[in-house]
Amino acid sequence: MSPCVSIIIITFNYGRFIKDALDSVLDQSFSDYEVIVVDDGSTDNTALIIEKHRRFLGEKLRYFYKENQGVAAARNYGILEARGRYIAFLDADDIWERMTLEKLVAAMEKNPDCGMAYGNVEFYDKDLQMTIGRRFQPGVFPIPYEGKCFDRLYTHGNFIHTSSCILRRSIFDLVGLFDRRFKCGEDLDMWIRVSTIIAVKYLDDVLAKVRRHKASLSFAFLAIHKSMVLMTRKLMKTVPNFESTLGAEAIKEKLYTHFYAIGIYSILDGKNKRGRGWLIKAWQTNPGFFRNKILFYWILSYMPFSRLFKSLRQTPILVRKRRPQKIKVLHIIKTLNLGGAESNLLNLARSFDNRFFEAHVAYSGQGQLEEFFRKNGIKLFKFAGREHKIKSINSLKIIWRLTRYIRKEKIKIVHTHTFNAHVWGGIAAKLTGCKIVEHVHDSRYIDPAEFDKRGETCKQYQFIKFLKNFSDRVVVLTKQNQDFVIRKRLYRPEMVCEIQNGIDLTAAKNLSVAEKIKLRERLYLPWDSKIVLSPIRFSPEKNLNLLFQVALEVTATFSDVIFVIAGTGPEKERFEQWVASYGLQERIRTIGFYPDIPELLSITDVFLLPSTIELHSIAIMEAMRQRVPVVVSKNVGCHDKFIRHWENGVLLDPFTKNGWSDAIITLLQDNDLRRFIGESGFRTVARHFDINDVAKKFEDIYENLLSI
Questions:
Q1: Rounded mean pLDDT, 547-571
Q2: Mean pLDDT over all residues of the chain?
Q3: In this predicted structure, what is the pLDDT of residue 399?
Q4: Of the ranges 191-205, 298-312, 469-483, which one carries the lowest mean pLDDT score?
Q5: What is the DSSP string of 604-645?
Q6: Which H or E element spans position 224?
Q7: Which one of 174, 207, 251, 406 has the fewest beta carbons within 10 angstroms of its own beta carbon?
Q8: CA-CA-CA-CA torsion for 181, 185, 186, 192, nearest 10 degrees?
Q9: CA 592 vs CA 570, 585, 645: distances in Å
Q10: Dist. CA 659–CA 61, nearest whole Å
Q11: How far apart are alpha carbons 480 and 637 in whole angstroms?
């Protein structure tokens, strides 16, 4: 039986404190709970302390050790493991009062319209000997706010302490997990997201004792200000009416404060040039050169003794040690049309740490994703007005243009994403002395025997012998690709690595009932119909014959099922002729290119993709992120590596129609099974395919190449 509350404790080298935290859990008057301890890579005696408490907590205690990835990632791990209706967080260096859980659960039970409840806290020194004060008290935070108080959280700061709150487990299905981009302040970002959609309840009781010490993230002032800048920009894009609610001037004033603070901290840390850059941003945000002594610190940054002020900084800056200058990376791709390689590039480019890396994207022609890159502030370079083949005389012109751009922009790394782009970009990189990362999204490194088996051909295979040892690093999507490259001795084993695609876990679409009805009306889909979605390119490898046969059988069984097929391609007209010949235009809808697949997934019951050739489909991961059960091909790409049959998805043989229709019919009939597989799929994606983890792996490759 599932517990009422899942208590999530995050720890990193807090072995000296976590015993007190666990003791306070044991002392709770409320006992229907489980304890999930996520150890974020501790090197102290934390594991020993946890093991000692296992004899008291027994099966209630679950301990997970993982490599250090930060607080947000650790909290997300705990949420995905949680089984309770409610989730409560307890920081490893804090202590609960005896009635804390009982009061928080009671508040949630009495207020079913609230998604979160929180209380007051008392601050102590590290030894819990001296009281520093309370969160809510005259002169500090005299007014605890309730309701949809996201505006107060933004303007007044984080008055909800993590160790004093409880949330409904279901709320994370609506707002997503903690944003891993934040080095700190990830809790404030979460509370703002929660309080924009549902009310928050305040309890006028002290629920936790909170230690204040220099190891606490609360002291990372510079990191906090940088996180607030990132948060503001994010909220302006994602929260409806954010600017109108707070007012443009109030937002400008907050940004000015953070820019100014970052500038001063940077100068006092001896990073004068960087500090002046932040001061310029402060002045541009809220003009007034003499305001708040900007001019004083500007002049100070040029003084030879300014580095002496480094000792005035109160704590270490919680950032990764990197090169002082940004590493400029040119990503080269054939087009920006809708596709797996293009979607993965978009996800990657906006996930790199822009403090240390600058992403440029070179492409040809026009594409549906071009505007998405621009909206994310990614620098674009169009090297050709339309698509060209490698054998074209225009290849010489393309290589010359790429070479000129690399030199002009002082590019350090060339990262290629498609075969044509690899040939053009690789030659340009060789001419300019850049390092080359070959990112393989296509089938160039698949054994021709596999293509013969699947009735396909790969023209790129015949060229790979000419590109032997051409790249400095080769990144493939599957173990089969990696083994093939090494077996054929195209590259040394240490030069080839497997990195699978990733997605933004926070980009799931959670539409309201009214929004779903409007979407169905826009697509002429009955409000009570069941939807089977296949976002594909209409081409032979997508197994269109099988897709059509499955649709015929399922629609013959259910009168309220509609197959929605989104995409374009050379076989689209022929497929539509099949549909018309059976008079099934109302039951099998081909809607062409659709710019927002997550939106479609929000009204989808089952995801279908019977491809014969696939590497690592972005569309499958998006469906799993949206908690939609996936029915896909086995022994294709890396599907079998992360999908377990009838656990987090359904795997079937794409060379026979046996089982496909039955699987979809079973899922459509069994709501509980559909929900179970969808939830399991979400947990799989959240654990293994976070785009921030993927971006970090590429950042390490870039840095490693430049250090050789």
A1: 94
A2: 85
A3: 95
A4: 298-312
A5: -SEEEE--SS-SS-HHHHHHHHTT--EEEESSSTTHHHH--B
A6: helix 221-238
A7: 174
A8: -120
A9: 12, 14, 30
A10: 41
A11: 8
Strand intervals (E) in 228-370: 327-332, 357-364
**Structure-block tokens of residue 696:** 């970090």
Residue with the larger pLDDT of the pair 5 and 320: 5
The SS3 of residue 590 is: strand
Residues contacting residue 408 through CB under 8 Å, at least 6 positions apart: none
629-679 per-position pLDDT tens digit: 999 999 888 899 899 999 999 999 999 999 999 999 999 999 999 999 999
Cβ pair 162, 91 in contact under 8 A? yes
CB 200 within 8 Å of CB 114: yes
- State the pLDDT at residue 135: 72
Q: Give the integer Cα–Cα distance in Å for 618 and 398.
A: 29
Side chain identity, residue 506: T
Counting every residue, how long is the chain? Answer: 708
DSSP per residue, 14-65: -HHHHHHHHHHHHT-S---EEEEEEE-S--SSHHHHHHHHHHHHGGGEEEEE
Alpha-carbon distance of 405 to 3, in angstroms, equals 59
Collapsed DSSP state (helix, strand, coil) of residue 379:
strand
- Strand 33-39 to 561-566 pairing: unpaired
Cβ neighbors of 440 (< 8 A, separation 6 or more) are: 474, 475, 476, 477, 481
Q: Report the candidate in 332, 307, 489, 306 with the shortest Cα–Cα distance to residue 403.
A: 332
Which amino acid makes up residue 310?
K
Whole-prediction pTM value?
A: 0.69
Q: What amino acid occupies position 303?
A: M
| Contact (CB, 8 A) for 163 and 89 | yes
Tens of pLDDT, residues 417-432: 989 999 999 999 999 9
Contact 564, 523 (CB under 8 A): yes
